[in-house]
């Protein structure tokens, strides 16, 4: 089980009791948001690195288009991965861990903090 699987399960379990019909959609959105923010930080970091090394391979418009395509791909990958059977397998594996170890506020602040870091790095570039 990966870290993303554990985070998905914790978000899913939190919203399962409150919004039972939308819990899976919220958890898939959370994992997609987290992975896309990590991808954005990596992209901004490498853009700054390549700019300082005077490497000019792609225009900014093409990079943002590539990022948008990656976001769509990540969303559909997560939608397929956590669709039904995978979630049931995760539920069976995590039944031993009844207590959630993470605060839901901390989980939602994690991608927002990563986006803040990407914004700071983007201003430095």
TrEMBL record:
Which domain of life does the protein's organism represent?
Bacteria
Which key words are in the record? Membrane, Transmembrane, Transmembrane helix
Give me the segments passing through the membrane: 26-50, 62-80, 100-122
Q: Is Transmembrane one of the keywords UniProt gives this record?
A: yes
Name it. Answer: Uncharacterized protein
Native source species: Tamlana crocina
